[in-house]
Design brief:
The protein is mostly helical and 164 residues long. The protein is built from 2 helices and no strands. Helices cover 92% and strands 0% of the residues.
Amino acid sequence: MDLLTPSIGLVVWSTASFAILFFILTKFAWKPIVQALKEREDSIHEALQSAEKARQQMDALKADNENLLREARRERDSILKEARELKDSIISKAQKEGEEVKKKLVAEAAEAINKEKSAALIELKAQVASLSVDIAEKILRKNIEKNAEQEALINDNLKRLQIN
């Protein structure tokens, strides 16, 4: 039983050793340990705050990106709409210009045809007049006394005219 009941000297020396050790640890080690724990707690707290700020900034950036995407889509849609309208106006303008050119060409062709027709009529009239003068000249040159001979000569000249 001696082992189970410690002697008074052992208890005193154990308590004294513990007190000295406790005093030394309190004097030299306790403050640095508490300070290190406090610094670690502060750094963890700062890291958590930084992470929260970063999360908030990421949320703000995400919202900004979504707004930019919406704005870009709106602008893209408006640009496409303007392009379609421009395309339609260009096509419409080209069709109108084509119609105007077509009408102008038709009018010019009709005018050219009328000029050619007029020129042909003038030439025809000149030939008829020339032939009439030739016939009259031939008739006057011949001394024809009978009507039948005059009619035969005129008919003969007309037949030659139709052949030419």
